[in-house]
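#random but structural
TW: two for the price of one
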Amino acid sequence: MGTAIVANAGATLPYQLPGQRTACQIVWALSAAALAVLLAARAGHWLHHRDQARAHLLDPAVAPFYGCLSMALLAVGAGTLVVGRDLIGEPAAVAADAVLFTAGTAVGLLMAVLVPYLMVVRHEIDAAQAGPAWLLPLVSPMVSAATGPLLVPHLPAGQAREALLLACYAMFGLSLLATLLLPMVFGRLLTAGPLPLLLTPTLFLVLGPLGQSTTAVNQLADVAPLAVGAPYAGALGAFAVVYGVPVTGFALLWLALATALLVRAARAGMGFAMTWWALTFPVGTCVTGAAGLARHTGLTAFAWLAAALYVALLAAWLLAAGHTLRGLAAGRLLPR
């Protein structure tokens, strides 16, 4: 999903450079290939090492990351419709996105219930262990809310479009209210101090529900006139701005805090870990959120913000991808 967001965000930026869309198509193809490989590996793991796979669900440090499966399906599916259609044609892109959206939403809703349930009844945790990764299974429905609008214009007018639109708003509310545990994460930082060095990049995960919810309300506002009439369509357009601007303000505050703590960790000797990928997808959601606000407000400031955040996203992706490839080549990231 960290790779797919580079393509999705790049294709929807207010500013487009020569060759930018072609580059986004290449990155989307890379993300689709990576998803296929990882899905096959995960399926093989469940088939041949079922005990280990179940143990992961019972591990409070690992279980929240099952939310990433849903977000990967949804992000690649959205990219298929946004840029992949140039390569495979619109009918095939719509069909592929419909399958990935349906699967990703089903998995996301399941994990949004299952992981918190396991945290309550099976995991042994306390408030001092609260971390940004706890948000992962709860953010998945928000990603569905942000990507579902892409399918609305391809549904028959009437009940089908309205049902999908309102279902996305329901998932927006589900995820938004569920992520109210964010104050617990902030409280843990204030009372217990910074996270361990290698976990510091996970602070950027907090940007996920902020940027993705802003993206969702703007994407939904774009297609609301196709699904509902006045006065609701206009109200939903106004809500996109009234909600998105203050949330973006808080996202920028958290981005500054997380960046300062990341610099502190780097100066303290933080090495590479797969947690570096937390610097990609959440920042990408802030790019698409700012781009949506630029569309609905017409303010150049939001367009520039989206462009600046995209540059940061590219830098983070290049760092994470480069170190990951070196780790794979050296055999450090795969079990022996």
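TW: number two ↓
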Amino acid sequence: MQNIQNRTIFRDDHEHFREQVQRFFKDEISPFHPEWERQGVIPKEVWRKAGALGLLNTMLPDPYGAGGDFGHAAILIEEVARTGASGLGFPLHSDIVAPYIYQYGTTEQKDRWLPKMASGELIGAIAMTEPEAGSDLKAIRTTARREGDFYVLNGQKTFITNGINSEIVIVVAKTSADLGAKGISLLVVEDGMEGFSKGRRLEKIGLLAQDTSELFFDNVRVPVGNLLGEENKGFSYLMHELAQERLVIAVRAATSIETFLQKTIDYTRDRKAFGQPVLGFQNTKFKLAEAKAQAVMLRVFVDKCIALHLEKKLSPELAAAAKLNATTLQNRLLDEFLQLHGGYGYMTEYQIGRAWVDARVGRIYGGSDEIMKEIISRTL
């Protein structure tokens, strides 16, 4: 069978970038990630170091980023998955938050925020989810009322990745509540604005090093100059950009499967039971053979989606299918891999247990499985 790593979507400059990312992860991430999991946050200094090496805003042009494309972004996402560095919020910062500003911001806004995001001086977050809204953006309660040259922002957001570290947050708010989804706008809130506060660090079952928090907005006076794009056009902006977010999740899931498939092959080859390697049992061979066949199939599909996205041809429906397939398969196969590790799968020594727990949120964030099915169903 063709090796699942024989791929054609990446150019030489992409692979040179991968080598740079791998060196950074080896020196600056992997040795310290267990401690960050205990602390529940990645030090801001790590972001500054990544920015200095051109590892942030990889797909935006200079001076807003490293001047690459989504291929460079995909490589960094893959290395996050391959090393198990689940706490790094780089992909959300670079591939979700920064593109909103680049796509819909004015020249003044881009010049003010993006170079600092590229250097790691500003850490970005996006605040969509609310305690009672979940995936239903139409049901959000956060409001922004226009008063002269300001919007008065009130509301609460939860499950916000990079929430504690965030220095710039794109907030989804209703500027015309009577219009429903057609009354949503995107406002950029900056750390230090009066009335903007961060709640407790949320305790999750996985992604332990990733700082996730609640955000509160109490009569925050946001300058009109911090409105992204046009007022009441926020919902359409969100729908347009969510395809990339879902592809980011799919890329990560596919690489996680491949990484832990190989780790499980290596473990079962070395581990003995009843006088022979665990890999020698027919059940083990069949489980891993099935996993490899499915990993190859997923890899071909996800790489096709990356290729389409590089040509700006990836549809929301196909991105939803990629996320749904990738995260469902990831959850099922990582559970199989953990089982093949036996009791050691439940220990932190072999990483599979942590990866198994971390993977579960993939079927929830970026739009739940059910939302993905709803999007796909529109094509039926």
